[in-house]
Structure formats: C-alpha cells, structure tokens
Design goal:
InterPro entries: YceD. By secondary structure, the protein is an alpha+beta fold. The protein folds into two domains: 125 residues, no CATH class; 40 residues, no CATH class. 15% of the residues lie in helices and 36% in strands. The protein contains three helices and nine strands. Strands 2, 3, 4, 5, 6, 7 and 8 form a seven-stranded mixed sheet that branches. Strands 1-9 form a two-stranded antiparallel sheet. Strand 6 and strand 7 form a beta hairpin. The longest helix is centred in the last third of the chain and has 11 residues.
C-alpha cells in the first residue's frame, strides 16, 4: 500500500459501540499523501463524515471526505491548491463468513471488505476517496498554457513569449539548402 504511514485512531470503529446505526463527523490531520504522480501536501485538516449501519449479513458504510491539497500542474509544473470532495462506501463482512459469501457469489457487492475481531478501520477508505478525487491531469486552471517546448518558459507568465529556434532534422538539412537556393 502506498500510504501505510497514514493512520488515525479516530477512523477505527468498535462494532460493539453501537446498536443499529452510527454517525460521526471527525477531523484528522496528516502531512502528506502519496499519489500516483507525486507526494501532495495537505493544506487543511481532513473532515470525514461517515455513517455505519448494521445489517443482517454485514455492516454498510458510506461517507464523505473534504480537505485541500497542494498539487503540481501537469502543464506548467507550478504548485496550486485543489479542494478535495470525495466519497466512499463499503460493505464489511466478518472474515469468518468469507467462504459462505463466496459460495453465494456476491457479485453485486463490488466494495466488500472482510474484517476480523470487532473493529472496522476506515483509513483505507478515506485514503482511497482522497486519491480518487484528485484529477488524472491536475491543472492550475483550465486554460493553462504550459511551458515553452523549446526553452521551458512559463507561457502563463509570459504569454507573448516566442522562441524562433529553427529545429531542422539533420537528414533534411541538404534538402533545405536546395530549397533556400531555389527561392533566391
């Protein structure tokens, strides 16, 4: 797992601590999260709201995650703030019932998680919600112009920038000379 260092006791729920349903709203603080493309810094506490509901064959969980991350723009590489509004849901089944459920082919339960003892840890669900809420291609703004492909100048800061470097494939250099001579 990419983010095994991220933990919070507030996300560990004792199943015996509630009868039928349990709602909670908590705030946790982490420094950084490892995304697929970079390590992102948290700019605000992580607000997590979740509901647990005991059912006959397991525990249904759903919730939301709100925070803010510092990301790097994919075009200009500048840092920018990005609000995260993620959601998660899962269905927890006691591990001892795993073989029984596999025989019943619970294909409609895509996010089924097996747990041991009497505790459910929502940490992985929260991390997953944050990662899924990050855009595949983070942009500082929708019309980001990016970097000059020749010199690397940030085109957002210098929109009139123009590199006049003529890049000629060496295989076509003689052909260009012939063309230039015929134009004279």
């Amino acid at each position: 797992m990419l983010n095994e260092h991220l933990k919070s006791k507030k996300l560990e729920i004792q199943i015996e601590s509630f009868e039928k349903t349990f709602k909670n709203s908590i705030e946790i603080t982490w420094d950084k999260i490892k995304l697929l493309s970079e390590d992102a810094k948290f700019l605000s506490p992580i607000k997590v709201e979740f509901n647990l509901k005991k059912l006959k064959n397991g525990i249904e969980v759903y919730g939301t995650v709100d925070t803010e991350l510092e990301l790097s723009c994919s075009r200009c590489l500048e840092k920018f703030n990005h609000k995260i509004n993620g959601q998660f849901e899962a269905f927890y089944i006691k591990k001892e019932h795993m073989e029984l459920n596999e025989k019943e082919e619970l294909s409609d339960l895509e996010n089924t998680i097996y747990y041991e003892n009497s505790e459910i840890d929502l940490t992985e669900r929260v991390i997953e919600a944050i990662i899924l809420a990050v855009p595949d291609i983070p942009l500082c703004k929708n019309d980001c112009k990016g970097l000059c492909p020749i010199c690397g100048e940030n085109l957002n800061e210098h929109p009139d920038h123009n590199c006049e470097v003529e890049d000629i494939d060496p295989r076509f250099e003689k052909l260009k000379q012939l063309l230039d001579n015929n134009l004279d």
